[in-house]
Write a structure and sequence with these properties.
The structure is a single chain. This protein has 17 helices and two strands. The protein has a two-stranded antiparallel ribbon. Helix 2 packs antiparallel against helix 12 and helix 3 packs antiparallel against helix 11. It has one domain. With about 475 residues, the protein is mainly alpha-helical.
């Protein structure tokens, strides 16, 4: 039986068929897609647990979610840059430099994690009020925010280690770690959110222990899950992976490659920060609409994840493929893999959008018992489904551009799209259409973002190497 085509084998073959490339893309994407779907499934369960506590509990979480994403996104400033450069070094068979970058990445990101965690803890009391929340949910939101801030160092080490392992072409282990994080999160949430309760199963009464901590329990469950899985993936990176520590090898703490990695990563990190700041602004625009709109908004975002996470899975697979192909100077493979990846992302997310359009009422029934929240959530989510194919194009194309080291212009385009189109339209539409107006703005913006990414891809200067 012929072995599956890997990146290393791909780079050694002069002639590669379309079916071989598509099979490799699919094989590398599947673990990441399954991981992302698992993540969303667990998010559904998590949201349902909090939703069972009432609309106020869901609103308390939703109120600070965008601020949490902002700080977590800032911490990822250099993870992308290091993973891109490590992939390129591996493609060029410069393995010692790749290991050197691994060491530098860990040291730098520990420093970043300490700074951001300290800032998050310091501002935890004021965030709910800055987001426009009322007094009934502010204290709960603040506690949720504070607890999650303590997970930042572990979160960042997990993301960094996973991205570096992925850069070697290994998608399975990072995907398993991601899925394990979600499963552990749900397990601990199950024990921490709800109080002890009894169930009758086949005539036997079973006591399920529970701490009854409510929203605080949801945050604590996440922290414990991150501690466990970040430790596991760090161990794998350092002692088992293709970037494992080599005995008697001297590693420099600083090199010009560190500056290159930061140059690649800073635009992406700033993009995450500015885009999440836009989400904060959107939440602030929506907050005055009341707890029902806040709850419907957060549930719709959770539900939409089932559609776009496959796109992120394909995008995650494209970064090591493209970066290693570029490192090996195989621009012919960069072009072909990129074209197939973009098409695959658009098709899968388009199919997911069609399915979600019809099943979303059932999804919202899992989230909340509130009929009012469910009805509003279904309306806004169906609007968003019209943007899924182009959203897939935007996600995968951005990953491809990052793989070749083109991070600045795509980041600028993403920022310009979300602030220039989405926020502007939100400000115009929300006063007249409420939450529906915000999601119309989002739909229009995502379609425009996909077009902008395609334009950059076809006109990018690095394509002259083809």
């Amino acid at each position: 039986m012929k072995k599956a085509l890997t990146i290393s084998r791909l780079l050694k073959q002069q002639e590669v068929s379309r079916s071989e490339i598509l099979k490799m893309l699919w094989n590398m994407s599947i673990p990441a897609i399954l991981s992302q779907i698992t993540f969303i499934a667990m998010q559904y369960i998590d949201a349902a647990m909090v939703g069972s506590l009432g609309a106020d509990a869901s609103a308390a979480v939703g109120l600070v979610s965008s601020a949490i994403w902002l700080l977590f996104g800032i911490t990822m400033t250099s993870t992308v840059g290091f993973s891109i450069l490590v992939g390129q070094k591996i493609g060029a068979e410069e393995y010692r430099k790749a290991r050197e970058l691994r060491h530098q990445a860990i040291m730098f990101n520990i420093f970043i994690a300490i700074i951001i965690t300290s800032i998050g803890i310091a501002i935890s009391d004021s965030v709910p009020l800055l987001m426009g929340g009322d007094d009934t949910i502010a204290s709960t939101s603040s506690a949720y925010f504070l607890i999650l801030m303590t997970s930042i160092p572990f979160f960042l080490m997990r993301v960094l280690s996973s991205s570096l392992v992925q850069a070697t072409g290994n998608m399975k282990i990072p995907s398993l770690i991601s899925a394990s994080t979600c499963i552990l999160d749900i397990l601990f949430n199950f024990l921490l959110i709800l109080p002890s309760r009894q169930y009758e199963i086949f005539g036997f009464v079973v006591l399920i222990p529970g701490a009854g901590l409510g929203v605080k329990g949801a945050a604590l469950g996440t922290v414990v899950a991150e501690i466990i899985t970040s430790s596991v993936i760090m161990y794998y990176l350092l002692f088992k992976s293709g970037l494992r520590i080599e005995h008697d090898e001297k590693i420099s703490l600083f090199s010009k490659d560190l500056l290159t990695a930061l140059k690649l990563g800073i635009p992406v990190g700033l993009e995450h920060a500015v885009i999440t700041a836009a989400m904060v602004a959107t939440t602030k625009i929506i907050a005055p609409l009341g707890t029902v709109s806040l709850a419907a908004n957060i549930f719709a975002i959770e539900a939409e994840g089932l559609c776009y996470m496959p796109g992120y899975g394909i995008g995650a697979a494209m970064v090591p493929i493209i970066s290693q192909c570029k490192g090996a100077n195989r621009y012919d493979l960069v072009r072909r893999c990129a074209n197939y990846g973009i098409t695959l992302g658009a098709m899968i997310m388009g199919i997911c959008g069609i399915i979600m359009f019809f099943i979303c009422p059932v999804i919202f029934m899992l989230f909340t018992p509130s009929t009012e929240v469910r009805e509003l959530g279904v309306q806004i989510l169906r609007i968003e489904m019209l943007a899924e194919p182009m959203f897939g194009v935007a996600i995968v194309t951005a990953s491809i551009l990052r793989g070749v080291g083109d991070t600045l212009i795509p980041s600028i385009l993403n920022v310009a799209s979300i602030w220039g189109i989405r926020i502007s339209l939100c400000m115009l539409l929300v006063p007249h259409l409420g939450l529906i107006g915000a999601w119309i703005a989002m739909c229009i913006e995502l379609n425009c973002r996909g077009m902008l990414m395609l334009i950059r891809f076809f006109l990018a200067p690095w394509k002259k190497g083809f």
